[in-house]
Amino acid sequence: xxxxxxxxxxxxxxxxxxxxxxxxxxxxxxxxxxxxxxxxxxxxxxxxxxxxxxxxxxxxxxxxxxxxxxxxxxxxxxxxxxxxxxxxxxxxxxxxxxxxxxxxxxxxxxxxxxxxxxxxxxxxxxxxxxxxxxxxxxxxxxxxxxxxxxxxxxxxxxxxxxxxxxxxxxxxxxxxxxxxxxxxxxxxxxxxxxxxxxxxxxxxxxxxxxxxxxxxxxxxxxxxxxxxxxxxxxxxxxxxxxxxxxxxxxxxxxxxxxxxxxxxxxxxxxxxxxxxxxxxxxxxxxxxxxxxxxxxxxxxxxxxxxxxxxxxxxxxxxxxxxxxxxxxxxxxxxxxxxxxxxxxxxxxxxxxxxxxxxxxxxxxxxxxxxxxxxxxxxxxxxxxxxxxxxxxxxxxxxxxxxxxxxxxxxxxxxxxxxxxxxxxxxxxxxxxxxxxxxxxxxxxxxxxxxxxxxxxxxxxxxxxxxxxxxxxxxxxxxxxxxxxxxxxxxxxxxxxxxxxxxxxxxxxxxxxxxxxxxxxxxxxxxxxxxxxxxxxxxxxxxxxxxxxxxxxxxxxxxxxxxxxxxxxxxxxxxxxxxxxxxxxxxxxxxxxxxxxxxxxxxxxxxxxxxxxxxxxxxxxxxxxxxxxxxxxxxxxxxxxxxxxxxxxxxxxxxxxxxxxxxxxxxxxxxxxxxxxxxxxxxxxxxxxxxxxxxxxxxxxxxxxxxxxxxxxxxxxxxxxxxxxxxxxxxxxxxxxxxxxxxxxxxxxxxxxxxxxxxxxxxxxxxxxxxxxxxxxxxxxxxxxxxxxxxxxxxxxxxxxxxxxxxxxxxxxxxxxxxxxxxxxxxxxxxxxxxxxxxxxxxxxxxxxxxxxxxxxxxxxxxxxxxxxxxxxxxxxxxxxxxxxxxxxxxxxxxxxxxxxxxxxxxxxxxxxxxxxxxxxxxxxxxxxxxxxxxxxxxxxxxxxxxxxxxxxxxxxxxxxxxxxxxxxxxxxxxxxxxxxxxxxxxxxxxxxxx
Length: 994
Description:
The protein starts with a strand and ends in a 9-residue tail after the last helix. About 60% of the residues lie in helices and about 5% in strands. The protein is elongated and about 105 Å long. It contains 43 helices and 14 strands. Helix 24 (about 550-560) crosses helix 27 (about 605-630) and helix 36 runs parallel beside helix 38.
């Protein structure tokens, strides 16, 4: 066992100090350690660790929990004194480990050593290092860690291990020493039935071991597996080997690699200079250039490969050329450049062997008599570069396989790679620095146009410049096309150019260029054509989604595929930079990519398929909204959601806050979907979605939105003659009318709803409508009328067998009795409601019941009991969260009212100090609400001056210490004045007297 601190991740996660195993704690704590270890000394942000631990469900206490894990790890790892190994910095943590102290680092170094030895013809050393690298794995990497992050890293490390095994097997088979590897090859091939290179090596090894029948059986199995899983045939290499085995081709008996070591002719010392010209008007990217310069400073850990990736048209080649010119002076032995044509039209990607030949030609190495084998050419290329310091720019790479043969064997040269995909295999295998390019910032985009059109022209029309930048989405290629048109037509105003873009209505016609390199549609098509057919279909259908950010369930629903499959396809789109993944499992994209996907959808997908996808996407959100509303409230108030549509993946929710967060994030999307559904022939769905978003809109005080969606729902329901839907839309409009004091209108809407529900025999619809009428009667101060509605609601809820609805009606009855001064009877009704609600999981009606009971106790002079119930009420209110504007949030108002009434109850109970504390907190909450209202109302609003004076009076009171004997009395006076003013102005009709 190695001395000092050592770690293992290529198997179970373990740590030792001087050979003694260390306790690493819970799985979550061990995963925190893994994230730090895999960063290899890099500072890891708290957000990265949180994403690994909780994926999309990061709790509010994440930072504190992570801090605890790090503290415990530090206590465990730093037992020997000396310098700290786990350090903290602003926003994150870093773990320092010696190069040989982590099995993964040793594995990577051994793999690099093997590659270098093999490239120089030292096969024995290469084989020895490959065997040692293979043995670093002690089972499945990150074993026993049940996290999605661990699963992803485990898969990535498994791919790296398989690459080593494949390289080792190929060399041993070539040397005729494959017998000892066949059992392991067979096991690995069984575990990876779709990995064709592994199956090819197994077939070749079996054949050379005299087991021809087994080799042919292996091919048959692979062919069946590929057809069943992917619907494809084996690739050319596997089919060719199968044919050779069938005819017992003597060439399959092979030769030993050492008999064909590459002959290296003495190269002439030339200094190639192949970089394309730098763009004189290059703009921006200062941060990315600084990042590369900083990482490429001499010293340990300096990367030998830099991967620049980003979406089509983002300026990868221009950036890489600028970067290469800036760095060229550090590489005196020359610069090499090749366009790998990875994403051009047709199957025109450059063969790596051709690229190597071009580089050898540039280095003055004769290649005309060399064999065509890529490994021989690569070995020679690496030998020539072994003693040189060159900068190599590999532009427009398609995948890792195209790049690997073009990498030098040592670290003295630097390779810059550009690609539309992330080349994660290359990064994992080489430790490459990755630089992701996003569209330019607004200031950079403006400078981009200034460099091409001149500062004076832009200064003359600033509004048009902003419109152009916005329409182009700050994408360099789109900006360049527009700038070229404007420069070629100096008589055009920029406003006219902006109008042309606006006339395209988000399409790509405005960005058509004179050739394939400057036509945005053509450039995007090269990435699209490289997608698999399922990923291409998903790309097209995503354009139906109206939101800026898409989760995997949305993609799964639109495409009609399982969620796991959709995750794979979304990652393929992200790897191609056709979407981006700003946080795990959530994707967004550029507006021009959305427009391109919509064009493709219209051209390639039938109207029936598009309508089916719209329906699935709509049902995904309909069922998600229903589930979220049921999480917020257990009341069965609403239409049935219907059977779950096939291949629809709605969200599930872990709790109240999760549901509120989803509604808040999807608020605008849901409003858009309701409007589009009503217009696109999905009236039933529009009506149901409008109702299931109602609870959230009510809680958040989004009154205008609540009115609009219910107007849309009402018109849609009337078109299709759905009386139940008419009833629910009428109830939604009644809620808005009552809030704004339009009580007669509210009663008319509710009368229409009652008529609809009665005609359809809907008992619960009638019961909840009567319950809603209770609230309207109470707001009108018609207490007798409210009790009549309570009795009607109670009778219907009992007939329907709905105890939660019955409890809500009892609460309303108790409130009415309290206002009539019948406090004993009110207490009886309130306690009956509490008995039904206490274990129901229905928080809102429970708070109303607690409020009503506490009010009864107050009027009966039982102040201690009143305080106890108010405390329970406040505790529940604080668990509900606040969403929407503080000035309109129902939950904020519930907390304000509860604090004020709790202070009054404590004062009556003789708890004067705590009464002052609660009243101060309630007044501060009321002040915050009214101040927010003051900031948002119009400058010339008739109530503005009075509202300002009210807020000032509250702020003056709160600025005083509350230790004086008369503070409570003065605070009560200011409260009464403020509430009266707020009620009269229409901003606070909810804090009522006991």
